[in-house]
Each structure stands twice: as structure tokens, then as C-alpha cells.
Amino acid sequence: MHIQIPTSVVRNENTFINNEEFLLYSRLCFLFFKNYKNEEIKVDHKKLMGKLSIGDTRTLKNRLLQLHNAGLIRNKIDILPRRSELVILFNDRVIKENKYFTMMNVDIFNHLDKITSHSFRLLFYYKSHINLKQEGVDYCFVGVETLKNRLKMGGHTINQANNNLVENKLIEIKKHKLKHNYEYDEQDELVFDKYNNHYYINKKLF
């Protein structure tokens, strides 16, 4: 089974959600497709919090509010039920209006005890740029500045998240440094070319 998320959401193209909210949305996307695309998702909110390591109900409500503000779910949830299941109305219009999706093996949820929400988001972002149908493009080479701008993450946080993914053997990074080809510019300065790192995702997640 796979998680399918609109690539525009993965990359924050039309609206912004942070990495913790993205993790919650990814779980809702999985439940939506698992439930035969039924917009009405019923969950035990305590179990949902446990799976996503959400410590208190206020945090869950805030993240659901942000998903509602972003137009990703239809109902605004102010109160969590005490005994019955939580009903979340998934906005399937977002799915219908998107042509491109980023897919990840559902097994990634089993790594949530080892990776952070930042790592989880980066993994999806890298995957969104990989097209195995195109020969020689089995890696992502997005620049760090792009990640900073799109995901509102600092350089240190990005490095920590990447290290987290490498340590858990979920990605491999081939680093590229500044190089020059011994050409000079008009000021008689060496011209340097900078190549972005290449990010390879563990094939088990495809």
C-alpha cells in the first residue's frame, strides 16, 4: 500500500502547512484512499495522536485547524469527542483538482519512532522530484535555498533532518562541492560552479 499526496501540497505550492501539519495530513490522505475515497474519515483521536506522537489534544486541534484554514479538510473541529469517534471531512476537491501525486510506501509510518516530522517532510519533498520512468533520474537535486523558502526550515534543521534520514538508511546523499574549470571572469577571478547534492531514496519506499 502507498500514501498518495498531491505534489502541490508536498511542496507548499498553493498553500503553506508546516511539517507537523503535513504529517497529520499524510495520515488523513492514507485513510481517505484506504476508505475507498470516502470524504468522511472516522478515527479514534487518541490512537491517531499515539501514531503521530502528538502529546496533547490542544496540539491536535491546532493542527486540524491549520489544515482547515488551508482548505485541506472541510470541517472546523473545536471540540474532540470523549467517547465516540472523531469525524474529519476530508476535502477531496484538492485530490480531484491535482494531476500530480507523490507516492510513498505506507511502511514509512513504521519509522515515525525514529525520524522527525522534518525528516518525514523532506523525504516526501525529495520523492516528489524523482521519476523512475525517466532513465537516469533516480535522485533529487533540489537546492537547500529552495527547501528553506518552500518549507520555512533553517539550514541547521535541514542538516539534522538529512542526517536523521541517512542514519535510518532511508536516503543516501552524494555531496557536491564548489568546483572550477580554470576559466576566469571579466575581473580575472576564477569562475566557480556549484552543483546541488544528489538525494537517493531507499527503493523499498517506492
Give the helix/strand layout:
Layout: E1 2-6, H1 7-10, H2 19-34, E2 40-43, H3 45-51, H4 57-69, E3 86-89, H5 92-96, E4 101-105, H6 117-128, H7 144-151, H8 155-167, E5 171-174, E6 179-184, E7 190-193, E8 198-201
Task: Characterise this structure.
- With 206 residues, the protein is an alpha+beta fold.
- It has one domain.
- It is 38% helix and 17% strand.
- The protein has 8 helices and 8 strands; from the N terminus they run βααβααβαβαααββββ.
- The strands form 4 sheets. The chain has a two-stranded antiparallel ribbon.
- A hairpin with a 5-residue loop joins strand 6 (179-184) and strand 7.
- The model is unreliable at 180-185 and 188-193 (pLDDT under 50).
Oligomer description? single chain
Average of the residue pLDDT scores: 91
The largest β sheet comes out as: 2 strands, antiparallel
Helical/strand content category:
alpha+beta
> Number of domains in the coordinates?
1
Please state the overall shape, judged from the principal axes of the Cα atoms.
globular
